[in-house]
Amino acid sequence: MPFFDYTAFDANNRQQKGQIEADSDLGARQLLRDKKLLPISLEAVQKKTAKRKANRTVPSKDIALFTQQFAALVQSNIPLEEALRVASEQTRNKNLKSTLQEIRAKVLEGHSVANSMSDHPKVFSPIFQALVKAGEHTGELSLVLLKLADYTERSQKLRNTVIQATVYPLVLTIVAFSIISLLMAFVVPRVVKQFEGTGQELPVLTKIMINCSNFILDYGLGVGAFILIASIAWRYSLKNENWLLKVHKFYLKLPVVGFLIINLETSRLLGTVSIMLNGGSALLETLNITTTTLHNRAIRQVMQDVTEKVKAGQLLSKMLENAKLFPPISVYIVANGEHSGELAKALEQAAAQQENELNNAIGITTKLIEPVLMLVFGLLVFAIVLAILLPILQMNNFSNF
Q1: What's the 3-state SS for the chain?
Q2: Which of 62, 231, 280, 306 has the fewest Cβ atoms surrounding its Cβ within 10 A?
Q3: Residue 243: what pLDDT?
Q4: What distance in Å separates the CA atoms of residue 40 and residue 32, rounded to the nearest whole number?
Q5: Any residues with CB less than 8 A from the CB of 332 and at least 6 apart, and which?
Q6: CA distance linking residue 275 with residue 125, whole number of Å
Q7: What integer pLDDT is reported at residue 48 of this predicted model?
Q8: CA 83 to CA 142: how far, in whole Å?
C-alpha cells in the first residue's frame, strides 16, 4: 500500500504532520478521522518523491545499518513486506525511509525485492541488487543478506580508515599553512618595521621573510583566487573519461599513493567478487558488475580486459598475473582456490589478507606523515621567529661597542 504525507488538526486544534499508510486517498482520510484528526492536505509519497528519485542518495553507513536490520528480520521468518515496513520505520534517514516505502509498495503489488530495488540505483548498488536477486532465486535471502551485512560493514570500516588517513594530514596542512600565512602577513611586517629607522643592514633571513611577507600581502588574494579557479577547472576536467584515465594511470606510478590505491582497489575487488560468488552469482556476471564499482579507471580498464579473457575460457588467476598489477600473494591465493574448486572461499581469504595489509600500510604511512609535517612546519615557524630575533640580537651587538 502507498504512503501519504498529511497535515491535519487534532482535537485541540493544533496542527499535526506525519505519514500514514492506506490503500487510497479516501482510505487515508478515513484513517485520519478515526484518529480524531481533521486532514488539511494529503499527498502520496510516491508522487512526491518521483521527481527526486534520480538524485536521491543515502550514506553508506545507513545502508549498512539497514542491511543488518533487514537480514535479522528476514532470518526471523517475517514476511518481506512486513520486514520492509519495520526497517523503514526504524531508519532515521528520510531518503532511505521513503525509498523503502516505495520498494514495499512494489513488493505488495507482486514485484520481487531485487526488481523493486532496481528503481533506486543510487541507493542500492548493482552489487546489492545482484545479491538480493540471487538470494531470492535460491531461497536463501536471509543468508545472503547476513553476508551482505558483514561485507557492507567491512567496506564501511575500510572506507572510514582511508578517509581518516587522508583527512588528518590535509587538515593539519591547511591549519599550519594558514597560521604561517597570518604570521607572515601581519606579524613579521609590524616587528621588522621597528628596525627600518636604525640604518643597520638586516640579516639575509629577515630580508627573505620580508619579501615573502610582501608577496603574500600584494598577491595573496590573487594566488588564492587562482588556486580556487584551478581547483574548479581540475574538477570539471576529470569529467572527461580519457583525461581521467590518464590521471589515474599517473596516480598508480606515484611511489606511496600508487601502492595504496592498488591495495585498496584489490581489496575492494576481491571482497566484492567473493561475496557475490558466495551469494550464488555466476563468475562472469560477478566480474562484470564488480568491475564497474572500481574507482580507478586504469584498474577498471585492466579488469575489463581480464573479464573478456575469462569469458573466452582463460583462468582468472592467470589473467590477474598477466596484468602485472595485482599483489602476487592475492594472485597465488586465487590460483589455489581455482585448483581446489573453492574459488569463493579463496577470494574471501585473499580479500581479508589485502584488508589487513592495507590497514597496516595506512597506519604506517599516517604515523610517518605526522612527524614529517610537524617537523616541516616547525622549521618554518622557527625560521620566522629567527628572522625576527636576528635584527634584535644584531642591534644589541652594535650597542655594546
Answers
A1: CCEEEEEEECCCCCEEEEEEECCCHHHHHHHHHHCCCEEEEEEEHHHHHHCCHHHCCCCHHHHHHHHHHHHHHHHCCCCHHHHHHHHHHHCCCHHHHHHHHHHHHHHHCCCCHHHHHCCCCCCCCHHHHHHHHHHHHHCCHHHHHHHHHHHHHHHHHHHHHHHHHHHHHHHHHHHHHHHHHHHHHHHHHHHHHHHHHHCCCCCHHHHHHHHHHHHHHHHHHHHHHHHHHHHHHHHHHCCCHHHHHHHHHHHHHCHHHHHHHHHHHHHHHHHHHHHHHHCCCCHHHHHHHHHHHCCCHHHHHHHHHHHHHHHCCCCHHHHHHHHCCCCHHHHHHHHHHHHHCCHHHHHHHHHHHHHHHHHHHHHHHHHHHHHHHHHHHHHHHHHHHHHHHHHHHHHHHHHCC
A2: 231
A3: 92
A4: 10
A5: 317
A6: 14
A7: 45
A8: 11
Q: Is 18 helix (H, G, I), strand (E, B) or coil?
A: strand
Question: Which parts of the chain register pLDDT below 50?
Answer: 47-54, 401
Q: How far apart are CA 132 and CA 128, in angstroms?
A: 6
Collapsing DSSP states into helix, strand and coil, what is residue 41?
strand
DSSP β-bridge partners for residue 6 = 18, 42
Distance in angstroms (rounded) separating the CA atoms of residues 128 and 276: 9
Contact (Cβ atoms closer than 8 angstroms) between residue 343 and residue 337: yes
pTM of the model: 0.68
Looking up cell 581521467, which residue turns up?
244
The number of C-alpha atoms within 13 Å of 76 and in the hemisphere containing its C-beta is 10
Residue 232: its pLDDT value, please? 93
What is the rounded distance in angstroms from the CA atom of residue 265 to the CA atom of residue 323?
14
Residue 279 burial class via C-beta count within 10 angstroms: exposed 0-12, middle 13-18, buried 19 and up: buried
Spell out the alpha helix ranges (H) of 294-342: 297-311, 316-323, 328-340
**Residue 43: predicted pLDDT:** 78
